[in-house]
């Protein structure tokens, strides 16, 4: 693994200069929008327009995706968007039309649909500016259907299902755009007084039309923890909301007034009864479904911490400790989190290499082989 763990996480990858300075200059934004190199990522109901590829059929993001797939996002010129999107104007939009809609999803799309979001300037493979500005817009149903109909091979794709098929640049703009549009979708009205809000600053600020206060996008921090016991086994849990053969790391939202480390210790104790010591940060990944930032830790069970191990029965219905051999055993009967998740990345970090597709068990590389050379030193064991 040549890349540092945090920057290799599928949704943490990016190839863009977010160009903060230009956001507050409406004339400059208009010039960029009108420039020949401007490109637009188009979103619809949380999906992005892809020119090549589609969501994998029959796969929901857990376990292994179908092999040998490729997806490329469609970055359109502004003049390719069509009539419904021409009026998108980041500095004069308001959300009054949303009041007339009854369906929540439609209302949400309408609120986000009036935003011309400036994502930044694309960078090349050496992180040099390409000069190509990228925007994102959300289109309504009718326009969404037309955009696909006009483009052979095009489809609407789900970030969670195609993230690992995208290059760094596409993964970055999709993640950034989706996170922001999810915020716009629920921000048509001021949370303080209920008045409508307008969009400013290239789509990065909304302002209350009555109080004049600025409203900023929010990110909800959640901790996710790889817990290792004295025998180097990893603790995985099965969530009550999942099919029962699905196992992943334990995770939970950070509460207000709480540090990340305290949240990790509290969440693990609540969900499993296990007491962990000294959680150590390993990396983070945005998870815009709708607004999370997953903050990853590794931790060891405290000296007397394993005795009380029990699933909370509410959120977590089963807990199992896995050795490295057990986790790649094709007969273990479990499904692990899919490759776009930080959970999968932390499991592989503990394992010491990629967990190969489970339908080809003869190819599985056990730690005794090549992967052992790259196995990271488990956290909490005294390095540093
Ligand atoms: Zn207000």
From TrEMBL:
Keyword Electron transport: no
SUPFAM superfamilies, A to Z: Nudix (SSF55811)
Keyword hit for Metal-binding: yes
GO biological process: NAD+ catabolic process; NADP+ catabolic process
Reaction(s) this enzyme catalyzes, per UniProt: a 5'-end NAD(+)-phospho-ribonucleoside in mRNA + H2O = a 5'-end phospho-adenosine-phospho-ribonucleoside in mRNA + beta-nicotinamide D-ribonucleotide + 2 H(+)
EC nos: 3.6.1.22
Any one cellular-component term (Gene Ontology): cytosol
Highest rank taxon of the organism: Bacteria
Domain Nudix hydrolase intervals: 217-343
Family named by the database record: Belongs to the Nudix hydrolase family. NudC subfamily.
Annotated NCBIfam families: PRK00241.1
Protein's name in the database: NAD(+) diphosphatase
